[in-house]
Design a protein that fits this description.
With 384 residues, the protein is an all-alpha fold. The chain has 15 helices and 2 strands.
């Protein structure tokens, strides 16, 4: 089945933005390990907003919880359209990333648990479960025609399911408290958005304004605010016409440039400021670092491919079009780029222990670099 031109456009734009994204990662690491480190961190911690509506947050929170909700909105739009009219509309293809993501969460968590179930680090079991959508898609976009578009669809769907799974884990196991009133309001807003869709309302303003309130109350509910972007995306109307752009396609087109060339680079800049300290490396090789590295680098590729192999053999699903198992292994490694959500979970798992946080961050960075490099090379040069 031919993928829509907008999905191709999404990854073509990512090809150039991927280079910018990697550049901003390097800039952030350089700043964090230079004389400007304290000033840089102070800038990220600077509060902006108003206390009137409890919207006074640091720059880093505005980036991670605010701007990234827009990124999740864009990816959610892509996933919805592909589920309805693209390659994922085939049930056998649609359920493959779900099973793959499940394996990609369970096996890494099990590996981490094996290393740490009797240690002081046991609370970090969810750290290697997540796939970083932004970075994994940026890497695969750099591969161009070396990888069929169907695999790019598969990876994006897998990453969405994976991160949504991580958000559920955060809500259930790493949330101190949930504001049920705010969560209930989120449910009411979601029902309103679905009603607008059912009534055939096409104007985007009727979705985007309630979407802002959805983000606000989701953020105050205690559940990660970026899920509001995905919920909003799935309520935006679409159609099957090839001549008339749907509201979904219009919004998708408008979001490409700001997401790829502003939001993702800013996110990379704010979240890769990892300081390499000698005292951290002195205690680096321990169950925490081994569990994270093994979970992301080995657990992801094993879990994704084993669960995929099972459902394909059972004929519950089938491989993405024009793909091979050797390429699936490469995809499994790319999914080992944990980064964003993994770092976020590590902060929640060890909220009052800076040393554990730093060890976790460096482990995540190392595992993500290794996974990304191996996955890129396998997909670039593996022909059979």
């Amino acid at each position: 089945m031919v993928l829509s031109q907008y999905f191709n456009k999404f990854f073509n734009s990512n090809k150039s933005s991927g280079i910018i994204l990697i550049l901003f990662v390097l800039i952030s690491l350089i700043l964090a390990n230079s004389s400007a480190a304290e000033s840089f961190q102070a800038l990220l911690d600077t509060s902006v907003g108003t206390e009137l509506f409890h919207l006074n947050y640091s720059f880093s929170i505005w980036i991670n919880d605010g701007l990234m909700a827009v990124f999740f909105l864009l990816v959610g739009l892509e996933i919805k359209r592909e589920l309805l009219e693209g390659e994922l509309s085939d049930i056998k293809k649609a359920n493959l990333p779900i099973f793959a993501a499940l394996g990609g969460m369970l096996i890494p968590a099990l590996i981490y648990f094996t290393f740490n179930h009797n240690s002081e680090y046991k609370n970090g079991w969810a750290i290697p479960m997540a796939t970083d959508i932004a970075f994994s898609l940026a890497i695969i976009s750099l591969l161009g025609k070396s990888v069929p578009n169907s695999l790019k669809v598969f990876l994006s769907a897998l990453a969405i399911v994976d991160d949504l799974g991580a958000i559920v884990v955060i809500a259930l196991f790493y949330t101190d408290s949930i504001d049920w009133i705010s969560l209930g309001i989120c449910g009411g807003i979601t029902i309103l958005l679905i009603l607008f869709n059912r009534l055939g309302i096409k104007q985007l303003v009727f979705y985007l304004i309630p979407g802002l309130f959805l983000w606000y109350f989701m953020h105050h509910s205690g559940i990660h605010a970026t899920i509001a972007g995905v919920i909003l995306a799935f309520t935006i109307p679409t159609n099957t016409s090839t001549t008339i752009m749907s509201p979904l396609e219009k919004l998708e087109e408008k979001l490409h440039t700001p997401v790829n060339f502003l939001i993702m680079p800013l996110f990379a800049l704010a979240n890769t400021n990892i300081t390499f300290q000698s005292e951290v490396f002195a205690h680096f090789v321990n169950p925490l670092s081994l569990g994270i590295i093994a979970g992301l680098f080995a657990g992801k590729v094993i879990g994704i491919n084993f669960f995929s192999w099972v459902v394909v053999k059972l004929k519950w699903s089938e491989l993405p079009a024009f793909s091979k198992w050797s390429q699936m292994i490469g995809i499994g490694f790319l999914a080992g780029i944990g980064f964003t959500m993994s770092i976020f979970v590590s902060l929640l798992a060890f909220p009052h222990d800076t040393e554990k946080q730093e060890i976790a961050k460096i482990s995540i960075l190392l595992a993500s670099v290794l996974s990304g490099a191996v996955g890129f090379l396998l997909l670039k040069f593996k022909k059979t």
